[in-house]
Write a structure and sequence with these properties.
mainly alpha; 5 helices
């Protein structure tokens, strides 16, 4: 499960689509609708919120908005409860950089043209996140 901190506009097709599926899985876990993934580290930052399900719903909204811009059809009716567009979370600079390198490595394999565009860009955060100074998150398991 990868719940990207990166701006969905920077995700290649595979990362955007899989992020949507994994976000819906995270939502199901947080709603208690599945027995698996309950201790997945990617859920930690959402579990720290007053309402973790609203946090994931708001994260999913960012992906759905990007899907709309690309002409994809993500079924927003699957997002429950309603997202909170005023919700703000933080992500550290080092976490964002780690995810950027992770995405770039994946794109070099599966989407070389997308990777070429990423190389000349700078990482941006998902609209839900404000970037703050700091190290890679404690919950992160990626090593890239």
């Amino acid at each position: 499960m990868r719940l990207w901190s990166l701006d969905p506009a920077q995700l290649d097709r595979a990362a955007l689509v899989s992020g949507w599926r994994e976000g819906l899985l995270a939502q199901a876990v947080l709603l208690g609708r599945t027995k698996g993934y309950t201790r997945h580290p990617q859920l930690v930052r959402f579990q720290q919120l007053d309402d973790p399900v609203v946090g994931v719903a708001t994260w999913l909204l960012g992906l759905a908005d990007e899907a709309d811009r690309r002409g994809y059809r993500f079924d927003r009716s699957r997002v429950v409860p309603a997202p909170d567009p005023t919700l703000r979370m933080t992500v550290t600079e080092d976490q964002l950089q780690l995810e950027w390198r992770h995405l770039l490595a994946k794109c070099e394999q599966r989407s070389p043209d997308w990777a070429a565009d990423l190389v000349i860009a700078a990482p941006r955060a998902h609209p839900l996140f404000d970037v703050v100074s700091g190290p890679v998150a404690d919950w992160e398991r990626a090593t890239s």
